[in-house]
Amino acid sequence: MRHQGKITSWKDGKGFGFVATNGKSEKAFIHIKAFADHSRRPAEGDLISYELILEQNGRFRADKVRFAGSAASAPTPAKSAWLPLIFAAVFCCLLLLAGFLGKLPFAFAGLYLAASVVAFVAYAIDKSAAQSRQWRIKESNLHILALLGGWPGALLAQKLLRHKTRKTQFQTVFWLTVLLNCCALGWLFTESGSSFIRPLLHS
Fold this sequence. Notes:
The protein is α+β, with helices and mostly antiparallel strands. It is elongated and about 70 Å long. The chain is built from 5 helices and 5 strands.
């Protein structure tokens, strides 16, 4: 028999939480491994359906969990969800254009590419670790990678892997690192920044 309920608490870093079953007072323990859809991270307030299991210690546990409506085809992402990736693509094009125009060394594009690859791999490793309850990569390290120029790759990982997209605090800090990185790059186009970058252009 399947039950319906709402996730009342969820610890994403540890991969478990509790769900309140409709019409019942007790809460059931729920683990990330019980979800059928591993492409989406659970969050507080999610509506789910599941089988309720009574363990030997008298505690209820949710098993064979599905998100509400996930039995059908997965929802199509809204067009606005792709805006961050479009922004990253435009940024990369402008970075290459600056190189062709002699405003920035092409090495900058290479640095962004390398940092983006490292960031994407880091996100992939972290998501895999979260699903298997292994050692996680610190969020501060992910933010450092973004700040150093890996944010385009981080954005791609967030969208393709559906990782770290539902944590408001993480997203706030992440976009702050993107802003700081873009401001630092924009400084290179100022008079003082041009004097700094000129020796590199003629080296």
